[in-house]
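W.,

You were right to be curious about this one. When I first looked at the sequence I had no strong expectations either way, so I just let the prediction run and decided to look at it fresh. Below is the sequence, 224 residues in total, followed by the output.
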Amino acid sequence: MKIIEPYVEVYPFDGKQIAKNLEKYARTAYKSEGAITGDSYDAFLRRIIKSGHTSTLEHEKVTVKFVVDRGISHEIVRHRVGAAYTQESTRYCNYSKDGFGNEITVIRPFFFPENSAEYKAWHSCCKTAEVYYMRLLSLGRTPQEARSVLPNSLKTEIVVTYNIREWRHFFSLRCAKEAHPQMRQVAIPLFIRMRERLIPLLDDLSFDMNFPIEHYAEVKEGKQ
């Protein structure tokens, strides 16, 4: 059994161009395209967001890949409007094969201190699930049948595409202190990275600043 930390990959996008495009599209409503300048998008989009006319933000999108446990992926896919998903499938992936290292991979829950009684209990449960998953496969059951014993901690990869309006919705819910700790672990550092690149589209949103920085998941630059 392999244990890893969660992380996120952000596929390339030009945040400034997204903002300029959104300004151009939104100004159609007012027929004020003549007011566009090199940096007019900033003040214009801030007014749009403040007014609540955020439907115009649906014209542009950003794609990322989350590497998280299955439980967190179940929360991610609750976002349905302006969303597209492609996820690693336990129906078709056979973790007994060489391509998966002949083992399952699980996400470490950071809130169980390593070598604590809680961590040992979690580790034992996941290891037992792996043993019986492999046993079911050896008895001739298919991956989609054997997956019945796999834990919520199983690593999954899910490619997520949201339009800008839905990213705002996602971050407003998933970076809040009420969100699941493992969700905040990936959502907060992703929000910080995307806020830097999508000026001013996320500037008015906040996040749980009390979440421990040392538990932030890594945010990587993905490749097209």
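Here's what jumped out at me. The longest helix spans residues 117-138. And, maybe more interesting for your project: The domain at 3-87+155-221 is CATH 3.30.1360.170 (Gyrase A; domain 2).

Coffee later to discuss?

I.
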